[in-house]
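// run 5 | inverse folding | seed 20
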Protein backbone atom coordinates (compact mmCIF):
# COMPACT_ATOMS: atom_id res chain seq x y z
CA UNK A 1 0.00 0.00 0.00
CA UNK A 2 1.04 3.59 -0.47
CA UNK A 3 3.12 5.39 2.17
CA UNK A 4 1.13 8.15 3.86
CA UNK A 5 1.30 10.40 6.85
CA UNK A 6 -0.65 8.88 9.73
CA UNK A 7 -0.95 12.26 11.41
CA UNK A 8 -2.87 13.81 8.55
CA UNK A 9 -6.61 14.05 9.06
CA UNK A 10 -8.21 10.85 7.81
CA UNK A 11 -9.97 12.59 4.92
CA UNK A 12 -6.96 14.47 3.49
CA UNK A 13 -4.97 13.56 0.36
CA UNK A 14 -2.14 11.00 0.63
CA UNK A 15 1.28 12.30 1.61
CA UNK A 16 4.49 10.74 0.28
CA UNK A 17 6.05 10.10 3.71
CA UNK A 18 6.48 6.42 4.57
CA UNK A 19 3.91 4.61 6.67
CA UNK A 20 4.99 4.03 10.28
CA UNK A 21 6.84 0.82 11.02
CA UNK A 22 5.64 -1.40 13.82
CA UNK A 23 8.65 -0.26 15.86
CA UNK A 24 7.62 3.38 15.42
CA UNK A 25 4.13 2.43 16.45
CA UNK A 26 5.39 0.94 19.66
CA UNK A 27 7.43 4.07 20.35
CA UNK A 28 4.42 6.30 19.61
CA UNK A 29 2.36 4.47 22.11
CA UNK A 30 4.87 4.36 24.93
CA UNK A 31 3.88 6.20 28.12
CA UNK A 32 6.80 6.52 30.46
CA UNK A 33 8.22 3.06 30.94
CA UNK A 34 5.07 1.16 29.96
CA UNK A 35 4.93 0.41 26.25
CA UNK A 36 1.70 -1.17 25.07
CA UNK A 37 2.31 -4.87 24.59
CA UNK A 38 0.69 -8.26 24.30
CA UNK A 39 -1.55 -8.82 27.31
CA UNK A 40 -2.73 -5.20 27.33
CA UNK A 41 -6.38 -4.51 28.05
CA UNK A 42 -8.37 -2.93 25.25
CA UNK A 43 -11.77 -1.42 26.07
CA UNK A 44 -14.11 -0.81 23.15
CA UNK A 45 -17.23 1.35 23.32
CA UNK A 46 -19.73 0.24 20.68
CA UNK A 47 -20.30 -3.14 19.04
CA UNK A 48 -20.90 -2.09 15.40
CA UNK A 49 -18.45 -2.88 12.57
CA UNK A 50 -15.93 -0.36 13.93
CA UNK A 51 -16.01 -2.01 17.36
CA UNK A 52 -16.44 -5.71 16.64
CA UNK A 53 -13.83 -5.92 13.86
CA UNK A 54 -11.34 -4.16 16.14
CA UNK A 55 -12.16 -6.59 18.96
CA UNK A 56 -11.33 -9.59 16.76
CA UNK A 57 -7.99 -8.08 15.70
CA UNK A 58 -7.08 -7.15 19.28
CA UNK A 59 -7.78 -10.70 20.46
CA UNK A 60 -5.69 -12.09 17.60
CA UNK A 61 -2.82 -9.88 18.78
CA UNK A 62 -3.12 -11.23 22.33
CA UNK A 63 -4.91 -8.41 24.14
CA UNK A 64 -7.63 -8.81 26.75
CA UNK A 65 -10.69 -7.21 25.13
CA UNK A 66 -13.76 -5.79 26.86
CA UNK A 67 -16.49 -4.65 24.45
CA UNK A 68 -19.28 -2.51 25.90
CA UNK A 69 -22.45 -2.29 23.80
CA UNK A 70 -25.64 -0.59 24.96
CA UNK A 71 -28.10 -1.88 22.38
CA UNK A 72 -27.16 -4.95 20.35
CA UNK A 73 -24.03 -6.63 18.99
CA UNK A 74 -23.51 -5.73 15.34
CA UNK A 75 -24.51 -2.16 16.08
CA UNK A 76 -26.82 -0.02 14.01
CA UNK A 77 -25.16 -1.45 10.90
CA UNK A 78 -26.67 -4.86 11.62
CA UNK A 79 -29.82 -3.98 13.57
CA UNK A 80 -31.24 -0.85 11.91
CA UNK A 81 -29.13 0.32 8.98
CA UNK A 82 -27.21 -1.82 6.46
CA UNK A 83 -28.58 -5.31 7.06
CA UNK A 84 -32.31 -4.50 7.39
CA UNK A 85 -32.34 -1.95 4.55
CA UNK A 86 -30.56 -4.32 2.16
CA UNK A 87 -32.85 -7.19 3.16
CA UNK A 88 -35.90 -5.04 2.39
CA UNK A 89 -34.27 -4.03 -0.90
CA UNK A 90 -33.80 -7.73 -1.79
CA UNK A 91 -37.60 -8.06 -1.86
CA UNK A 92 -37.95 -4.83 -3.84
CA UNK A 93 -35.33 -6.10 -6.30
CA UNK A 94 -37.25 -9.34 -6.87
CA UNK A 95 -40.35 -7.29 -7.71
CA UNK A 96 -38.38 -4.99 -10.02
CA UNK A 97 -37.00 -7.98 -11.93
CA UNK A 98 -40.52 -9.23 -12.56
CA UNK A 99 -41.34 -5.90 -14.23
CA UNK A 100 -39.23 -7.06 -17.16
CA UNK A 101 -41.01 -10.41 -17.35
CA UNK A 102 -43.30 -9.39 -20.20
CA UNK A 103 -40.35 -8.22 -22.29
CA UNK A 104 -38.69 -11.60 -21.75
CA UNK A 105 -41.86 -13.36 -22.92
CA UNK A 106 -43.27 -14.31 -19.51
CA UNK A 107 -46.94 -13.73 -18.76
CA UNK A 108 -48.58 -13.87 -15.34
CA UNK A 109 -51.83 -15.76 -15.12
CA UNK A 110 -54.29 -16.34 -12.31
CA UNK A 111 -55.75 -12.86 -11.93
CA UNK A 112 -59.31 -14.15 -12.42
CA UNK A 113 -61.84 -12.94 -15.02
CA UNK A 114 -59.17 -13.18 -17.67
CA UNK A 115 -57.15 -10.45 -15.90
CA UNK A 116 -53.39 -10.75 -15.61
CA UNK A 117 -52.35 -11.40 -12.00
CA UNK A 118 -50.13 -8.86 -10.21
CA UNK A 119 -47.36 -9.63 -7.79
CA UNK A 120 -47.49 -7.80 -4.50
CA UNK A 121 -45.40 -7.89 -1.36
CA UNK A 122 -46.91 -8.44 2.10
CA UNK A 123 -45.00 -5.85 4.13
CA UNK A 124 -45.80 -7.57 7.42
CA UNK A 125 -44.10 -10.75 6.21
CA UNK A 126 -41.26 -8.81 4.61
CA UNK A 127 -40.53 -6.81 7.76
CA UNK A 128 -40.70 -9.85 10.03
CA UNK A 129 -38.10 -11.50 7.77
CA UNK A 130 -35.99 -8.32 7.86
CA UNK A 131 -36.01 -8.12 11.67
CA UNK A 132 -35.39 -11.85 12.10
CA UNK A 133 -32.47 -11.84 9.66
CA UNK A 134 -30.89 -8.85 11.41
CA UNK A 135 -31.29 -10.56 14.80
CA UNK A 136 -29.67 -13.75 13.45
CA UNK A 137 -26.79 -11.77 12.01
CA UNK A 138 -26.29 -10.06 15.36
CA UNK A 139 -26.25 -13.46 17.08
CA UNK A 140 -23.71 -14.80 14.57
CA UNK A 141 -21.39 -11.90 15.33
CA UNK A 142 -21.90 -12.37 19.08
CA UNK A 143 -20.90 -16.05 18.62
CA UNK A 144 -17.71 -15.10 16.73
CA UNK A 145 -16.74 -12.59 19.42
CA UNK A 146 -17.41 -15.03 22.25
CA UNK A 147 -15.44 -17.80 20.53
CA UNK A 148 -12.55 -15.35 20.10
CA UNK A 149 -12.64 -14.67 23.86
CA UNK A 150 -13.96 -11.09 23.78
CA UNK A 151 -15.65 -10.11 27.08
CA UNK A 152 -19.05 -8.64 26.16
CA UNK A 153 -20.67 -6.15 28.52
CA UNK A 154 -24.30 -5.09 27.91
CA UNK A 155 -24.31 -1.48 29.02
CA UNK A 156 -23.55 2.10 28.22
CA UNK A 157 -19.87 3.03 28.34
CA UNK A 158 -17.93 6.21 29.03
CA UNK A 159 -14.27 6.93 29.62
CA UNK A 160 -12.45 8.43 32.59
CA UNK A 161 -10.58 11.72 32.29
CA UNK A 162 -7.26 10.72 33.84
CA UNK A 163 -4.39 8.48 32.84
CA UNK A 164 -2.72 6.52 35.63
CA UNK A 165 1.04 6.63 36.07
CA UNK A 166 1.16 3.36 34.12
CA UNK A 167 -0.80 4.93 31.26
CA UNK A 168 -4.10 3.22 32.02
CA UNK A 169 -7.51 4.82 31.90
CA UNK A 170 -10.72 3.90 33.70
CA UNK A 171 -13.63 2.89 31.50
CA UNK A 172 -17.07 2.71 33.11
CA UNK A 173 -20.10 0.72 32.00
CA UNK A 174 -23.61 1.43 33.31
CA UNK A 175 -25.58 -1.81 33.07
CA UNK A 176 -29.33 -2.09 32.40
CA UNK A 177 -30.05 -2.57 36.13
CA UNK A 178 -28.15 0.63 36.97
CA UNK A 179 -25.07 -1.13 38.31
CA UNK A 180 -21.66 0.23 37.40
CA UNK A 181 -18.64 -1.77 36.25
CA UNK A 182 -15.20 -0.25 35.91
CA UNK A 183 -12.31 -1.56 33.82
CA UNK A 184 -8.71 -0.40 33.64
CA UNK A 185 -7.73 -0.13 30.00
CA UNK A 186 -4.37 0.42 28.31
CA UNK A 187 -6.11 1.29 25.06
CA UNK A 188 -9.61 2.64 24.42
CA UNK A 189 -11.47 2.53 21.12
CA UNK A 190 -14.57 4.68 20.75
CA UNK A 191 -16.84 3.26 18.03
CA UNK A 192 -20.23 4.54 19.11
CA UNK A 193 -21.67 5.28 15.65
CA UNK A 194 -24.38 7.79 14.81
CA UNK A 195 -28.16 8.19 15.19
CA UNK A 196 -30.79 9.54 12.78
CA UNK A 197 -30.91 13.35 12.77
CA UNK A 198 -34.23 14.59 14.12
CA UNK A 199 -35.65 17.93 12.96
CA UNK A 200 -37.30 19.77 15.89
CA UNK A 201 -40.29 20.49 13.64
CA UNK A 202 -40.60 16.86 12.52
CA UNK A 203 -40.40 14.74 15.65
CA UNK A 204 -40.78 11.05 14.78
CA UNK A 205 -43.69 9.26 16.49
CA UNK A 206 -42.71 5.77 15.33
CA UNK A 207 -46.06 5.25 13.61
CA UNK A 208 -46.55 7.81 10.85
CA UNK A 209 -43.50 10.05 11.13
CA UNK A 210 -40.55 7.70 11.05
CA UNK A 211 -36.78 7.51 11.09
CA UNK A 212 -35.15 4.80 8.97
CA UNK A 213 -34.69 2.71 12.12
CA UNK A 214 -38.48 2.68 12.66
CA UNK A 215 -39.46 1.62 9.14
CA UNK A 216 -39.38 -2.07 10.06
CA UNK A 217 -42.27 -1.65 12.53
CA UNK A 218 -44.67 -1.23 9.63
CA UNK A 219 -47.11 -4.10 9.22
CA UNK A 220 -48.78 -2.85 6.09
CA UNK A 221 -47.44 -0.97 3.11
CA UNK A 222 -48.08 2.77 3.44
CA UNK A 223 -50.59 4.14 0.97
CA UNK A 224 -48.45 7.19 0.27
CA UNK A 225 -44.96 7.52 1.70
CA UNK A 226 -43.32 10.94 1.70
CA UNK A 227 -39.55 10.64 1.97
CA UNK A 228 -37.78 13.79 3.17
CA UNK A 229 -34.13 13.83 2.07
CA UNK A 230 -32.72 12.43 -1.18
CA UNK A 231 -29.28 11.36 0.10
CA UNK A 232 -28.36 7.68 -0.12
CA UNK A 233 -30.77 6.63 2.66
CA UNK A 234 -33.72 8.58 1.24
CA UNK A 235 -33.08 7.38 -2.32
CA UNK A 236 -32.73 3.73 -1.29
CA UNK A 237 -35.96 3.71 0.75
CA UNK A 238 -37.89 5.75 -1.84
CA UNK A 239 -36.82 3.33 -4.60
CA UNK A 240 -37.60 0.24 -2.52
CA UNK A 241 -41.09 1.39 -1.45
CA UNK A 242 -41.87 2.48 -5.00
CA UNK A 243 -41.01 -1.06 -6.16
CA UNK A 244 -43.16 -2.52 -3.36
CA UNK A 245 -46.16 -0.70 -4.86
CA UNK A 246 -46.42 2.29 -2.51
CA UNK A 247 -47.05 5.77 -3.90
CA UNK A 248 -43.88 7.73 -3.07
CA UNK A 249 -43.11 11.45 -3.00
CA UNK A 250 -39.44 12.30 -2.58
CA UNK A 251 -38.66 15.74 -1.13
CA UNK A 252 -35.24 16.54 -2.55
CA UNK A 253 -33.48 19.71 -1.42
CA UNK A 254 -31.10 19.87 -4.38
CA UNK A 255 -31.32 20.09 -8.17
CA UNK A 256 -30.97 16.30 -8.41
CA UNK A 257 -31.36 13.35 -6.08
CA UNK A 258 -28.16 11.84 -4.59
CA UNK A 259 -26.15 15.07 -4.27
CA UNK A 260 -22.41 14.51 -4.30
CA UNK A 261 -22.64 11.28 -6.30
CA UNK A 262 -21.66 10.84 -9.95
CA UNK A 263 -23.96 13.26 -11.81
CA UNK A 264 -24.74 10.93 -14.72
CA UNK A 265 -25.66 8.19 -12.27
CA UNK A 266 -27.83 10.49 -10.16
CA UNK A 267 -29.64 11.80 -13.23
CA UNK A 268 -30.27 8.27 -14.46
CA UNK A 269 -31.73 7.20 -11.11
CA UNK A 270 -33.93 10.29 -10.92
CA UNK A 271 -35.29 9.52 -14.42
CA UNK A 272 -35.95 5.91 -13.40
CA UNK A 273 -37.75 7.10 -10.26
CA UNK A 274 -40.00 9.43 -12.25
CA UNK A 275 -40.67 6.84 -14.95
CA UNK A 276 -41.78 4.36 -12.30
CA UNK A 277 -44.34 6.86 -11.06
CA UNK A 278 -42.49 8.43 -8.13
CA UNK A 279 -43.07 12.14 -7.56
CA UNK A 280 -39.71 13.86 -7.10
CA UNK A 281 -39.96 17.40 -5.74
CA UNK A 282 -36.61 18.99 -6.63
CA UNK A 283 -35.19 22.03 -4.82
CA UNK A 284 -37.73 21.47 -2.04
CA UNK A 285 -36.99 21.52 1.68
CA UNK A 286 -39.26 20.29 4.43
CA UNK A 287 -39.91 22.97 7.07
CA UNK A 288 -42.17 20.80 9.25
CA UNK A 289 -43.86 17.41 9.33
CA UNK A 290 -47.01 16.92 11.36
CA UNK A 291 -49.61 14.27 11.91
CA UNK A 292 -53.16 15.27 10.95
CA UNK A 293 -56.52 13.57 11.12
CA UNK A 294 -58.39 13.16 7.86
CA UNK A 295 -61.88 11.74 7.35
CA UNK A 296 -60.48 8.49 6.04
CA UNK A 297 -57.94 8.06 8.83
CA UNK A 298 -54.56 9.33 9.91
CA UNK A 299 -52.37 11.30 7.57
CA UNK A 300 -49.19 13.34 7.61
CA UNK A 301 -48.58 16.77 6.19
CA UNK A 302 -45.15 17.89 5.07
CA UNK A 303 -44.89 21.65 4.89
CA UNK A 304 -42.18 22.86 2.53
CA UNK A 305 -40.16 26.03 3.10
CA UNK A 306 -41.90 27.70 0.10
CA UNK A 307 -45.31 27.16 1.74
CA UNK A 308 -46.46 24.15 -0.31
CA UNK A 309 -47.98 21.29 1.69
CA UNK A 310 -47.72 17.63 0.66
CA UNK A 311 -50.13 15.16 2.26
CA UNK A 312 -49.41 11.46 2.58
CA UNK A 313 -50.10 8.52 4.87
CA UNK A 314 -46.55 8.22 6.28
CA UNK A 315 -43.32 10.22 6.27
CA UNK A 316 -39.75 8.95 6.44
CA UNK A 317 -37.39 11.68 7.60
CA UNK A 318 -33.96 10.81 6.16
CA UNK A 319 -31.93 13.97 6.67
CA UNK A 320 -28.64 12.40 7.77
CA UNK A 321 -27.15 11.29 11.06
CA UNK A 322 -25.61 12.83 14.18
CA UNK A 323 -22.56 11.23 15.84
CA UNK A 324 -23.07 9.54 19.22
CA UNK A 325 -20.32 11.43 21.01
CA UNK A 326 -22.15 13.15 23.87
CA UNK A 327 -21.92 11.95 27.48
CA UNK A 328 -18.91 9.71 26.88
CA UNK A 329 -16.43 11.81 28.87
CA UNK A 330 -14.46 12.55 25.69
CA UNK A 331 -13.78 16.27 26.07
CA UNK A 332 -12.73 15.77 29.71
CA UNK A 333 -10.25 13.13 28.52
CA UNK A 334 -8.76 15.54 25.94
CA UNK A 335 -10.45 14.10 22.86
CA UNK A 336 -11.05 16.85 20.30
CA UNK A 337 -14.54 16.97 18.82
CA UNK A 338 -15.45 18.93 15.66
CA UNK A 339 -18.24 21.52 15.53
CA UNK A 340 -20.49 18.85 14.00
CA UNK A 341 -19.79 16.55 16.96
CA UNK A 342 -17.40 14.12 15.23
CA UNK A 343 -14.26 12.83 16.93
CA UNK A 344 -11.11 14.14 15.20
CA UNK A 345 -8.89 11.23 14.13
CA UNK A 346 -5.76 10.78 12.05
CA UNK A 347 -5.27 8.07 9.47
CA UNK A 348 -4.36 5.41 12.01
CA UNK A 349 -7.52 6.26 14.02
CA UNK A 350 -5.73 8.11 16.86
CA UNK A 351 -7.67 10.86 18.62
CA UNK A 352 -5.98 13.81 20.33
CA UNK A 353 -5.95 11.91 23.66
CA UNK A 354 -3.17 9.46 24.34
CA UNK A 355 -4.16 5.84 23.70
CA UNK A 356 -7.72 6.76 22.82
CA UNK A 357 -8.66 5.75 19.27
CA UNK A 358 -11.93 6.22 17.38
CA UNK A 359 -13.48 4.44 14.41
CA UNK A 360 -16.61 4.58 12.29
CA UNK A 361 -19.49 7.04 12.08
CA UNK A 362 -18.58 8.76 15.36
CA UNK A 363 -15.40 9.93 13.57
CA UNK A 364 -17.22 11.26 10.49
CA UNK A 365 -14.46 10.12 8.10
CA UNK A 366 -16.75 8.31 5.64
CA UNK A 367 -19.95 6.79 7.00
CA UNK A 368 -19.70 3.29 5.56
CA UNK A 369 -19.64 -0.02 7.41
CA UNK A 370 -16.55 -1.11 5.45
CA UNK A 371 -14.67 2.06 6.42
CA UNK A 372 -15.70 1.74 10.08
CA UNK A 373 -14.39 -1.84 10.13
CA UNK A 374 -11.10 -0.85 8.50
CA UNK A 375 -10.61 2.10 10.89
CA UNK A 376 -11.22 -0.24 13.84
CA UNK A 377 -8.72 -2.83 12.59
CA UNK A 378 -6.13 -0.13 11.81
CA UNK A 379 -6.54 1.27 15.34
CA UNK A 380 -5.73 -2.10 16.88
CA UNK A 381 -2.82 -2.88 14.52
CA UNK A 382 -1.37 0.51 15.41
CA UNK A 383 -2.09 0.40 19.14
CA UNK A 384 -0.79 -3.13 19.59
CA UNK A 385 2.33 -2.64 17.49
CA UNK A 386 1.47 -4.71 14.42
CA UNK A 387 2.36 -3.65 10.87
CA UNK A 388 -0.12 -1.05 9.70
CA UNK A 389 -0.96 0.99 6.63
CA UNK A 390 -2.89 4.20 7.29
CA UNK A 391 -6.41 4.50 5.94
CA UNK A 392 -6.50 5.22 2.20
CA UNK A 393 -9.89 6.54 1.12
CA UNK A 394 -8.91 6.46 -2.56
CA UNK A 395 -9.47 2.71 -2.52
CA UNK A 396 -12.90 2.67 -0.88
CA UNK A 397 -15.63 0.99 -2.92
CA UNK A 398 -19.20 2.11 -2.23
CA UNK A 399 -22.58 1.06 -3.56
CA UNK A 400 -26.01 2.65 -3.60
CA UNK A 401 -28.66 -0.05 -3.60
CA UNK A 402 -31.18 1.56 -5.94
CA UNK A 403 -32.44 -0.23 -9.07
CA UNK A 404 -30.13 -0.10 -10.96
CA UNK A 405 -27.37 0.06 -8.37
CA UNK A 406 -24.58 2.65 -8.44
CA UNK A 407 -21.12 1.39 -7.48
CA UNK A 408 -18.09 3.65 -7.30
CA UNK A 409 -14.39 3.40 -6.51
CA UNK A 410 -11.54 5.90 -6.44
CA UNK A 411 -11.62 9.00 -8.65
CA UNK A 412 -15.10 9.39 -10.13
CA UNK A 413 -15.00 12.99 -11.37
CA UNK A 414 -12.42 14.47 -13.74
CA UNK A 415 -9.92 16.58 -11.79
CA UNK A 416 -8.82 19.77 -13.48
CA UNK A 417 -5.89 20.57 -11.20
CA UNK A 418 -4.06 17.30 -11.92
CA UNK A 419 -0.53 17.45 -13.25
CA UNK A 420 -1.11 14.14 -14.98
CA UNK A 421 -3.92 14.12 -17.48
CA UNK A 422 -6.94 12.15 -16.31
CA UNK A 423 -8.69 10.35 -19.13
CA UNK A 424 -12.13 8.79 -18.89
CA UNK A 425 -14.57 6.82 -20.94
CA UNK A 426 -18.33 6.29 -20.70
CA UNK A 427 -19.89 3.12 -22.08
CA UNK A 428 -23.67 2.62 -21.99
CA UNK A 429 -24.65 -0.94 -21.13
CA UNK A 430 -27.51 -0.98 -23.65
CA UNK A 431 -25.11 -2.04 -26.41
CA UNK A 432 -23.76 -5.01 -24.42
CA UNK A 433 -25.07 -8.34 -25.80
CA UNK A 434 -25.70 -9.87 -22.36
CA UNK A 435 -27.53 -6.73 -21.24
CA UNK A 436 -29.82 -7.03 -24.27
CA UNK A 437 -30.55 -10.68 -23.44
CA UNK A 438 -31.33 -9.77 -19.83
CA UNK A 439 -33.52 -6.84 -20.85
CA UNK A 440 -31.16 -4.28 -19.26
CA UNK A 441 -31.66 -0.98 -21.08
CA UNK A 442 -30.20 1.45 -18.55
CA UNK A 443 -26.80 1.71 -16.94
CA UNK A 444 -23.22 2.41 -17.88
CA UNK A 445 -19.57 1.85 -17.10
CA UNK A 446 -17.25 4.80 -16.51
CA UNK A 447 -13.53 4.28 -16.18
CA UNK A 448 -10.86 6.82 -15.21
CA UNK A 449 -7.09 6.46 -15.79
CA UNK A 450 -4.13 8.73 -15.14
CA UNK A 451 -3.38 9.12 -18.84
CA UNK A 452 -3.85 7.03 -21.99
CA UNK A 453 -2.78 3.43 -21.26
CA UNK A 454 -2.16 4.54 -17.65
CA UNK A 455 -3.19 3.28 -14.22
CA UNK A 456 -6.86 2.81 -13.46
CA UNK A 457 -7.70 5.42 -10.80
CA UNK A 458 -11.45 5.04 -10.52
CA UNK A 459 -14.71 3.84 -11.94
CA UNK A 460 -18.49 4.02 -11.77
CA UNK A 461 -20.78 1.12 -12.61
CA UNK A 462 -24.53 1.70 -12.90
CA UNK A 463 -26.23 -1.66 -13.43
CA UNK A 464 -28.23 -4.33 -11.66
CA UNK A 465 -25.80 -5.84 -9.11
CA UNK A 466 -23.21 -3.13 -9.77
CA UNK A 467 -22.02 -3.99 -6.25
CA UNK A 468 -20.60 -7.24 -7.68
CA UNK A 469 -19.47 -5.85 -11.05
CA UNK A 470 -17.26 -3.12 -9.54
CA UNK A 471 -14.79 -5.64 -8.08
CA UNK A 472 -12.37 -5.88 -11.07
CA UNK A 473 -12.14 -2.07 -11.12
CA UNK A 474 -11.56 -1.96 -7.34
CA UNK A 475 -8.82 -4.54 -7.74
CA UNK A 476 -7.24 -2.51 -10.53
CA UNK A 477 -7.32 0.69 -8.43
CA UNK A 478 -5.89 -1.00 -5.32
CA UNK A 479 -3.19 -2.86 -7.25
CA UNK A 480 -2.39 0.06 -9.56
CA UNK A 481 -3.10 -1.97 -12.68
CA UNK A 482 -3.11 -0.15 -16.00
CA UNK A 483 -6.06 -0.05 -18.36
CA UNK A 484 -4.03 -2.36 -20.59
CA UNK A 485 -3.68 -4.89 -17.72
CA UNK A 486 -7.43 -4.81 -17.30
CA UNK A 487 -8.11 -5.06 -21.03
CA UNK A 488 -5.87 -8.09 -21.52
CA UNK A 489 -7.79 -10.32 -19.09
CA UNK A 490 -10.29 -12.71 -20.69
CA UNK A 491 -13.93 -11.98 -19.92
CA UNK A 492 -16.85 -14.30 -20.56
CA UNK A 493 -18.78 -13.76 -23.78
CA UNK A 494 -21.49 -12.67 -23.36
CA UNK A 495 -21.14 -10.89 -20.02
CA UNK A 496 -21.60 -7.47 -18.46
CA UNK A 497 -17.94 -7.49 -17.38
CA UNK A 498 -17.13 -7.53 -21.09
CA UNK A 499 -18.07 -3.83 -21.06
CA UNK A 500 -15.48 -3.14 -18.34
CA UNK A 501 -12.85 -4.69 -20.54
CA UNK A 502 -14.09 -2.70 -23.54
CA UNK A 503 -13.96 0.52 -21.52
CA UNK A 504 -10.35 -0.30 -20.59
CA UNK A 505 -9.47 -0.94 -24.25
CA UNK A 506 -10.88 2.46 -25.18
CA UNK A 507 -8.42 4.15 -22.81
CA UNK A 508 -5.38 2.49 -24.45
CA UNK A 509 -4.79 5.66 -26.49
CA UNK A 510 -5.96 9.25 -26.13
C1 LIG B 1 -30.27 3.22 6.23
C2 LIG B 1 -28.78 3.03 6.15
C3 LIG B 1 -28.26 2.10 5.27
C4 LIG B 1 -26.88 1.92 5.20
N1 LIG B 1 -26.40 1.02 4.29
C5 LIG B 1 -25.06 0.83 4.18
C6 LIG B 1 -24.54 -0.12 3.26
O1 LIG B 1 -25.27 -0.75 2.50
N2 LIG B 1 -23.21 -0.31 3.23
C7 LIG B 1 -22.34 0.38 4.05
O2 LIG B 1 -21.14 0.16 4.00
N3 LIG B 1 -22.82 1.29 4.95
C8 LIG B 1 -24.15 1.54 5.02
N4 LIG B 1 -24.64 2.44 5.92
C9 LIG B 1 -23.70 3.12 6.84
C10 LIG B 1 -23.38 2.18 8.02
O3 LIG B 1 -24.58 1.80 8.65
C11 LIG B 1 -22.48 2.87 9.05
O4 LIG B 1 -21.39 3.45 8.38
C12 LIG B 1 -21.99 1.86 10.08
O5 LIG B 1 -23.07 1.42 10.85
C13 LIG B 1 -20.94 2.49 11.01
O6 LIG B 1 -20.51 1.54 11.92
P1 LIG B 1 -20.06 1.97 13.40
O7 LIG B 1 -19.41 0.79 14.00
O8 LIG B 1 -19.33 3.24 13.34
O9 LIG B 1 -21.41 2.32 14.16
P2 LIG B 1 -22.77 1.56 14.46
O10 LIG B 1 -23.05 0.47 13.50
O11 LIG B 1 -23.76 2.66 14.59
O12 LIG B 1 -22.52 0.90 15.89
C14 LIG B 1 -22.27 1.70 17.01
C15 LIG B 1 -22.79 1.01 18.23
O13 LIG B 1 -22.35 1.72 19.38
C16 LIG B 1 -23.35 1.63 20.36
N5 LIG B 1 -23.15 2.68 21.34
C17 LIG B 1 -23.34 4.02 21.20
N6 LIG B 1 -23.02 4.67 22.32
C18 LIG B 1 -22.60 3.73 23.21
C19 LIG B 1 -22.13 3.77 24.53
N7 LIG B 1 -21.99 4.92 25.20
N8 LIG B 1 -21.80 2.62 25.14
C20 LIG B 1 -21.92 1.43 24.49
N9 LIG B 1 -22.36 1.32 23.23
C21 LIG B 1 -22.69 2.47 22.58
C22 LIG B 1 -24.64 1.74 19.59
O14 LIG B 1 -25.71 1.15 20.31
C23 LIG B 1 -24.32 0.96 18.32
O15 LIG B 1 -24.74 -0.37 18.46
C24 LIG B 1 -26.01 2.67 6.01
C25 LIG B 1 -26.54 3.63 6.90
C26 LIG B 1 -27.90 3.81 6.95
C27 LIG B 1 -28.45 4.84 7.88
N1 LIG C 1 -25.62 1.96 0.49
C1 LIG C 1 -24.89 2.57 1.39
O1 LIG C 1 -23.69 2.33 1.50
C2 LIG C 1 -25.51 3.58 2.30
C3 LIG C 1 -26.89 3.66 2.48
C4 LIG C 1 -27.40 4.64 3.31
C5 LIG C 1 -26.52 5.50 3.96
N2 LIG C 1 -25.20 5.35 3.79
C6 LIG C 1 -24.22 6.25 4.43
O2 LIG C 1 -24.83 7.12 5.30
C7 LIG C 1 -24.45 8.47 4.99
C8 LIG C 1 -25.59 9.37 5.30
O3 LIG C 1 -26.59 9.23 4.30
P1 LIG C 1 -28.00 9.86 4.48
O4 LIG C 1 -28.71 9.77 3.20
O5 LIG C 1 -28.64 9.28 5.67
O6 LIG C 1 -27.68 11.37 4.85
P2 LIG C 1 -27.11 12.56 3.93
O7 LIG C 1 -26.66 13.61 4.87
O8 LIG C 1 -26.16 12.07 2.92
O9 LIG C 1 -28.39 13.05 3.11
C9 LIG C 1 -29.43 13.75 3.73
C10 LIG C 1 -30.05 14.66 2.69
O10 LIG C 1 -31.16 15.30 3.27
C11 LIG C 1 -31.18 16.63 2.81
N3 LIG C 1 -31.96 17.43 3.75
C12 LIG C 1 -31.59 17.91 4.97
N4 LIG C 1 -32.60 18.58 5.52
C13 LIG C 1 -33.63 18.54 4.66
C14 LIG C 1 -34.94 19.06 4.65
N5 LIG C 1 -35.39 19.77 5.68
N6 LIG C 1 -35.74 18.81 3.59
C15 LIG C 1 -35.29 18.08 2.54
N7 LIG C 1 -34.06 17.58 2.48
C16 LIG C 1 -33.24 17.80 3.53
C17 LIG C 1 -29.73 17.04 2.72
O11 LIG C 1 -29.56 18.12 1.84
C18 LIG C 1 -29.10 15.75 2.19
O12 LIG C 1 -29.08 15.74 0.79
C19 LIG C 1 -24.05 8.46 3.52
O13 LIG C 1 -23.04 9.38 3.26
C20 LIG C 1 -23.58 7.06 3.31
O14 LIG C 1 -22.18 6.99 3.44
C21 LIG C 1 -24.67 4.42 2.97
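// decoded
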Amino acid sequence: MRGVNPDAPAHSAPDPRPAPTSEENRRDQGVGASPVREGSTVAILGGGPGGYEAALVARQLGARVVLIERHGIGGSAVLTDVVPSKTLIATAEALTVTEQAAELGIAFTGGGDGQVGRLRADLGVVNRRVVELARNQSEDIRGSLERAGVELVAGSGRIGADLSRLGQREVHATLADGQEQTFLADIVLVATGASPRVLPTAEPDGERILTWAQMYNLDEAPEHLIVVGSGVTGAEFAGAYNALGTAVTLVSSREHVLPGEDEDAAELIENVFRRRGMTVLSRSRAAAVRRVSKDDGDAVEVELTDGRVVTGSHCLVAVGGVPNTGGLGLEEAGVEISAAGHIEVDRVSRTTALRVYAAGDCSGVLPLASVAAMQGRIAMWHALGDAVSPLDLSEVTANIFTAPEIATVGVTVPREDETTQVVQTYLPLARNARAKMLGITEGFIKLFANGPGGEVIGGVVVAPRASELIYPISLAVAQRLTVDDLAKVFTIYPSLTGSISEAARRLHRA
